[in-house]
C-alpha cells in the first residue's frame, strides 16, 4: 500500500479514518466478498487487517502481504489480538508487484483498496494471476475512475493532493479496464459506492475473476 519507507501517520489513523465507512456498509461489502475465499489464500496490501474478521473456516491458510512497515506492525498486532478463523496465518513484507511465491501457490488472492495505491497495477495483477492455481480466484474491491465525465474531471483535479493525503492513493485509475486485460476471466463485476466518503472517492468495483485452467502464468 505504500513506498518502502512507509507512512507512519497514515497507518496510525487509518482505522479511524475508515470507521464511518466501515459502519456505513464497507464492512458488509468486505464480508460478502470474502465469503468466496477458500483454501490457501493470499491477501495483497493487507494494511492494518480490516479484512481479518471476515475470513471464514473455508480458508485453510492465510498469508497477509503488506510492504509498509507501519501498516504491517498494526497488522501483526491485530492478528495477535483478533486471530482470524484460518488455522494458519502469516504476515510477510512484500509488495504486490513482487510476490515471493511460486506459480500456482494459492487458491484465492484478495485485493481490497490496493490497486489504487500500488506503483504498477498491471504488474500487481500479473503477479496475482501468476501465484493463483489454475481455476483459482481473485476477489477484488477497488476504487475506480468514475463513469461520469464530470466526476472523473474532479478525480483528475484532486488526484495529486489526495495522493499526498491518502498515502499514494490514486482515485482516478481505470482499474476495471486493467482487470479486463490481466489475463483473468472476470466472473462477476459490479459497480458500488464507497460509503460515507467524499464524492470523488465513491466509485468502486467489486467482483471475482478466475485464472483460466490450462493456461500458463505467462499466458501461453
Keywords:
220 residues; alpha/beta; Rossmann fold; 7-stranded mixed β-sheet; 5 helices; 7 strands; 34% helix; 24% strand
What does this structure look like?
Strand 2 (59-65), helix 2 and strand 3 (89-92) form a beta-alpha-beta unit. The protein is globular. It has helices at residues 8-34, 69-81, 121-131, 149-165, 175-180, and strands at residues 39-44, 59-65, 89-92, 106-112, 132-143, 185-193, 203-210. The chain is 34% helix and 24% strand. The relative contact order is 0.16. Strands 3-2-1-4-5-7-6 form a seven-stranded mixed beta sheet. With 220 residues, the protein is α/β, with parallel strands linked by helices. It has one domain: Vaccinia Virus protein VP39 (Rossmann fold), CATH 3.40.50. The longest helix has 27 residues, at 8-34.
Q: What is the number of beta strands?
A: 7
Mean pLDDT: 92
Q: What is the CATH architecture descriptor? A: 3-Layer(aba) Sandwich
CATH class: Alpha Beta
Biggest β-sheet: strands ordered side by side in the sheet: 3-2-1-4-5-7-6
Molecular shape: globular
The CATH topology is given as: Rossmann fold
**What proportion of the residues is helical, as a percent range?**
25-40%
Helix and strand succession?
HEEHEEHEHHEE
Low-confidence stretches: none
Number of DSSP helical runs = 5
Name the beta content range.
15-25%
* Largest pleated sheet: 7 strands, mixed
Output the CATH homologous superfamily: Vaccinia Virus protein VP39
Rg over alpha carbons:
16 Å
Amino acid at each position: 500500500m505504500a513506498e518502502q519507507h512507509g507512512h507512519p501517520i497514515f497507518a496510525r489513523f487509518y482505522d479511524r479514518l475508515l470507521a464511518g465507512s466501515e459502519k456505513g456498509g464497507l464492512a458488509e461489502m468486505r464480508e460478502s466478498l470474502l465469503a468466496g475465499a477458500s483454501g490457501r489464500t493470499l491477501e495483497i496490501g493487507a494494511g492494518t487487517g480490516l479484512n481479518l474478521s471476515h475470513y471464514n473456516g473455508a480458508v485453510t491458510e492465510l498469508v497477509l502481504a503488506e510492504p509498509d512497515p507501519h501498516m504491517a506492525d498494526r497488522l501483526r498486532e491485530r492478528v495477535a489480538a483478533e486471530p482470524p478463523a484460518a488455522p494458519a496465518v502469516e504476515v510477510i513484507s512484500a509488495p504486490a508487484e513482487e510476490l515471493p511465491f511460486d506459480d500456482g501457490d494459492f487458491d484465492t488472492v484478495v485485493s481490497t483498496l490496493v490497486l489504487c495505491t500500488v506503483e504498477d497495477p498491471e504488474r500487481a495483477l500479473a503477479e496475482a494471476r501468476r501465484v493463483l492455481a489454475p481455476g483459482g480466484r481473485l476477489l477484488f474491491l477497488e476504487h475506480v475512475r468514475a463513469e461520469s465525465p464530470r466526476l472523473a474531471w474532479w478525480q483528475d483535479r484532486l488526484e495529486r493532493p489526495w495522493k499526498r493525503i491518502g498515502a499514494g492513493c490514486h482515485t482516478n485509475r481505470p482499474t476495471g479496464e486493467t482487470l479486463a486485460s490481466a489475463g483473468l476471466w472476470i466472473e462477476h463485476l459490479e459497480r458500488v459506492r464507497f460509503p460515507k466518503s467524499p464524492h470523488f472517492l465513491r466509485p468502486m468495483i467489486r467482483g471475482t475473476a478466475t485464472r483460466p485452467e490450462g493456461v500458463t502464468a505467462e499466458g501461453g
